[in-house]
Amino acid sequence: MAKNSKRNKVNNDFMNAxxxxxxxxxAGVSTEEFLKVKSGASVNNAKNTVNNGLSSAxxxxxxxxxxxxxxxxxxxxxxxxxxxxxxLNWVPLTYAYKSNGFIQTAINQIVDDAFRNEGMIIDxxxxxxxxxxxxxxxxxxxxxxxxxxxxxxxxxxxxxxLIANTxxxxxxxxDEKLLKNKRLKFMASDRWQCIANGISPYLxxxxxxxxxxxxxxxxxxxxxxSRIGVFxxxxxxxxxxxxxxxxxxxxxxxxxxxxxxxxKAMGVTLELLDEAKIDIIKIFDLVNTLLSPNGExxxxxxxxxxxxxxxxxxxxxxxARDDYQQKQINFSGLPEMIVQIQYLVCAALKxxxxxxxxxxxxxxSSGEDDLENYNTIVDSEIRTPATPLxxxxxxxxxxxxxxxxxxDLKISWKPLRVMSExxxxxxxxxxxADMLQLVxxxxxxxxxxxIKLTEDSIINFSEEEIAGISNEFEPDNYNNAExxxxx
Length: 487
Known about the structure:
three-stranded antiparallel beta sheet, elongated, mainly alpha
């Protein structure tokens, strides 16, 4: 016990020394001035010292004009910032993802929404309709889930890795010419299992895939960088990039304060619920009983008898001079406090409250504004950064299926906003009427109109049907514009 207390004292002294040194560096004061301020020896500036103020509660030095205004002093920002990177502590992140449902939701929900209803569109004018359909089916049947997992681990750990598994030697560069009609299977991993052998995953010549996650050794399978696709998390500034080895930040790096508040509030709530009802039994002559031999055992037995009787009989047998009371804790204001902390968590995550905690908007708000902002975040944080990774994977799939990569291969996305069936029908009807009017005025031919209707999924014509439609203007042969679409 003495050794532990001594060790704790040394650790506390060391942390205090580090804190004081950083505070002096930020404030730009000398050691003597700082010691005078900290010891309270400066008499001239005694009036600036505030006892029992917020600065003392936060363990901040005060006086001598050093932290007179915490809102403008950079030391306040320093004391509320942690130099410890949660992104590098991948084991706590893993267990947090396992144990907390809303952490899983914060990562999985945004990725699933980005790919919702086959939201990724693969297009190329070089490929015919049959090849394009074959490519889309292969990607959605075999590759899309691995791509989504790569993005998930990029959000959680700051780096996700997509590995192209083929029959070729892993240590050599991928030979694209030998990939046609051969085995191609993608496998999702993360930066801690697939380690980049270089100062950055984008500059590494090869990666090491290891299964010894506990010791993080470099023994494992060496994979050439041409077989690796990378998705990094939140971009880090220069000071942190070297520490992160070129990877990004975990999305939970910026939500530690509100997340800590939420977890602590939930723990305190459970403790209060456990102690919501307190039974108070006033025992006559308690002090003298405790002073007698075996007095404590008698009191414990007395209480246990009362508790056992109350549990299954809902009644208590007591001495006439004993007394019994039951007190219940009032929880007024606690639910509102928890909701406000949940709002802080959602604000830090940039997710709507309904997406994380499953409760919709109340009052006059319909939630449309929240969803519009959320859709913008999905586009900027998931879809746009993931497009190069997806294009790389789809290009390899084209090599495996057709032996070539179309030069005009495009990856686009469907809008996230979901319209009702009524609104969608009205828009299609309006587009159809506008096109028929253009045909009626000979601005479009009926073949051009059929192609446009097929592209907009208003009326689906096959290629044979479109080829069989005349491309000439023949307004005199039809009674109205609708007849132009009929052969």
